[in-house]
């Protein structure tokens, strides 16, 4: 199996790469980090230093991987950033940067991968969203907005692609223990929510390694939405069954945050 993973040099992407290599897959790690080649070399993977906001670079990276390996079976459009803050703190820089990476980065990956998969007659596109893309997640409006959009993109493309032999899934994890939590609002103005993020998370963090196994299980089962861990699924079901209650619970979370500012 040939796989390409954006954001593959750390966090969820690195956990996926590690698990896939252990299962015998050939993996291409694409990441903006200067450490990408070192990380990939340690795993025996191919690598490319890639900024997913650069559409032409994404197109070239995916085409090069396809040319080298003759196919790409699974693409994980996983690169992303975390952005948080109460709405009045957020600048247009927060909004635009988050949209560029978390949404346009996925769009660029889909735009590059889908024609290749149509040409080869098969493939699976896996887009990393978040539980925040399924629930009313406050205090991180730009992030939540992009993740809802990634879910919508994935479900729409899944319906369109299925008759043509292409599978599409969205990954929607709850809070995962990754370096993303240590770098909220990267290169952007700081906010109240961006300080001591780990200490403010109301649930235990899920390990990236466990999530990687959940993702691959969901991919094997061709699940439309891969929601993990079980506490995330409970939150999702609750938001679907009682949306008003879910919004009130989220509102109480905001009140506690504001009281502590």
Describe this structure in words.
Helices cover 50% and strands 16% of the residues. By secondary structure, the protein is α/β, with parallel strands linked by helices. The protein has a single domain (2-259), classed as 3-Layer(aba) Sandwich (Rossmann fold). The protein starts with a strand and ends with a helix. The model has no long low-confidence stretch (mean pLDDT 93).
- CATH top level is Alpha Beta
Strand content: 15-25%
- The CATH superfamily label reads NAD(P)-binding Rossmann-like Domain
DSSP E strands, number: 9
Order of helices and strands: EHEHEHEHEHEEHEHEHH
- How is the CATH topology named? Rossmann fold
Distance from N terminus to C terminus (CA atoms, Å) equals 49 Å
Structural class of the helix and strand makeup? alpha/beta
What oligomeric state do the depicted chains represent? single chain
The number of domains is 1
The residue ranges in which pLDDT falls below 50 over 5 or more consecutive positions are none
The proportion of residues forming helix, as a percent range, comes to 40-55%
* Count of discrete alpha- or pi-helical segments spanning 4 or more residues: 9
Rg, rounded, reads 18 Å
Q: Spatial order of the strands in the main sheet?
A: 3-2-1-4-5-6-9
Shape-level CATH architecture? 3-Layer(aba) Sandwich
Q: What's the shape?
A: globular
Let me know the largest β-sheet.
Answer: 7 strands, parallel
Provide the residue-averaged pLDDT: 93
Pfam family, one: adh_short
GO cellular component, one term: membrane
Protein name: NAD(P)-dependent dehydrogenase (Short-subunit alcohol dehydrogenase family)
Family: Belongs to the short-chain dehydrogenases/reductases (SDR) family.
């Amino acid at each position: 199996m040939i796989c390409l993973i954006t954001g593959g040099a750390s966090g969820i992407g690195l956990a996926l790469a590690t698990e896939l290599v252990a299962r015998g897959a050939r993996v291409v790690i694409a990441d903006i980090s200067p450490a990408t080649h070192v990380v990939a070399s340690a795993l025996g993977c191919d690598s490319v230093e890639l900024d997913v906001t650069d559409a032409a670079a994404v197109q070239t990276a995916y085409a090069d991987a396809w040319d080298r390996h003759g196919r790409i079976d699974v693409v994980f459009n996983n690169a992303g950033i975390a952005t948080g803050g109460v709405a009045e703190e957020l600048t247009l820089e927060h909004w635009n940067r988050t949209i560029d990476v978390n949404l346009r980065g996925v769009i660029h990956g889909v735009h590059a991968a889908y024609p290749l998969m149509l040409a080869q007659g098969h493939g699976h596109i896996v887009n990393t969203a978040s539980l925040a893309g399924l629930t009313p997640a406050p205090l991180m409006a730009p992030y939540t907005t992009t993740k809802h959009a990634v879910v919508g993109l994935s479900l729409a493309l899944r319906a369109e692609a299925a008759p043509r032999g292409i599978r599409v899934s969205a990954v929607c994890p709850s809070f995962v223990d990754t370096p993303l939590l240590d770098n909220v609002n990267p290169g952007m103005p700081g906010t109240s929510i961006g300080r001591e993020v780990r200490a403010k998370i109301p649930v235990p963090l899920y390990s990236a390694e466990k999530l990687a196994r959940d993702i691959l299980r969901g991919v094997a089962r061709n699940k439309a939405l891969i929601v993990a861990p079980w506490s995330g699924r409970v939150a999702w079901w609750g938001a679907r069954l009682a949306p008003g209650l879910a919004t009130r619970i989220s509102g109480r979370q905001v009140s506690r945050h504001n009281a502590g500012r």
